[in-house]
Amino acid sequence: MKARRLRALALGGLVVGGVAAGAIRWTSDRALEKVYTPRLVEAGPGPIGEPSLERGRHLVTAVAQCTFCHGNDLGGREIADDPLLGRIDSANLTSGEGGIAGRYARTDWIRALRHGVRPDGRSLVLMPAIGLSKIAEQDLRAVVDYLEQVPPIDRAPRATRFGWMTRAVIALGWADDIFSAHEANAHRPSRARDVVPEAASRDYGEYLVALGNCRVCHKADLRGGLHPLALPEEPPPPPLVGDGAMEGWSREDFARAMREGRTPEGRALDRDYMPWPGYAALSDVEIDALWAYLAADARASTNRLAATR
Ligand code: HEC
Ligand code: HEC
Q1: Does the domain formed by 51-195 have CATH 1.10.760?
Q2: What is the pLDDT of residues 243-267, one digit of tens each?
Q3: What are the pocket residues of ligand 1 if the criterion is a CB atom closer than 6 Å to any ligand atom?
Q4: What is the pTM of this model?
Q5: pLDDT tens sequence across 161-186
Q6: Looking at the chain, which runs of residues are DSSP E strands?
């Protein structure tokens, strides 16, 4: 009697587990296979200045750090390979075999960078769209021109595989932000700017925060915190604005953190998770612009809080 009841229970458990696994698989597949047909965001009608290769190199290696995820040779690399999370390689951005620079048309670049969508209409995954979707026309051209002439690398990314944990988090709707198309859709302006003037201004600072992917890790509101799919060894990204963010820091302290990975308290920033070695090449004007934007925002929100107390 007892054994039979146990067997029935185990069988019931298997059936429930099987249904749950099927539901997770079905829901996550639907999200992963969804086809997007965005109306492509183009630049304004004004004349666009000649993009420079030097600007392209600076964007790819320092500001937007395509190199951080696509490798120093831009031929793509492993982003994750874990039984529960899954396996994902970044793309080969060069014109070599298995790379995209040779076969991507201009509309493909716009679709990928401004909309987070691959040529076949499916969303890219983990490609940072929250900020890249704001890329100005002249900068997009500079990036493409630069990528088309870097030494070609022959390397094909391995097929992506999603682990159960990632699928479950997707099915629960907790990881919409790993879908680049979703992120781009939520944050994209309706028209691309032709060019964002390089100056120590809040405007350029806001643009650098976008292109620099700060919001990918420090959260959309820049208030920091870990992502639900963070790896166990990942340090939590601290807040960059609001109460307590970079408290008492000067512009020099901020510059040292961005370029040397050291905080005024003497803490070393983990270069595997905070990509400061790439930001080290930011110009003085760019550090000023970032600081103008972040510090003004932090002060404004602290003052707002003080006023309501
Ligand atoms: C945070 C990491 C990260 C950064 C930074 C990043 N990428 Fe990616 N990118 C990825 C990943 C991961 C993929 C593969 C996505 C997939 O297959 O779903 C990808 C895919 C792409 C694709 C699509 C290729 C294809 O298969 O059709 C393009 C284009 C691309 N990246 C360009 C860039 C450029 C240009 C930059 C810099 C301006 C950049 N990426 C910065 C992670 C990143
Ligand atoms: C790939 C993820 C990632 C990106 C992109 C990123 N950060 Fe970070 N950042 C981190 C993490 C993680 C830490 C904490 C590192 C540690 O504690 O070792 C950090 C720390 C910092 C700190 C130190 C703050 C403090 O209070 O100690 C500053 C300043 C900072 N980031 C600024 C920026 C800015 C500005 C950008 C964009 C231009 C940016 N970060 C982009 C992940 C990131």
Answers
A1: yes
A2: 889 989 999 999 999 999 999 999 9
A3: 60, 64-66, 68-70, 79, 88, 90-91, 93, 100, 112, 118-119, 124-128, 132, 143, 160, 213
A4: 0.91
A5: 999 999 999 999 888 888 999 988 88
A6: 78-82, 86-89, 161-162
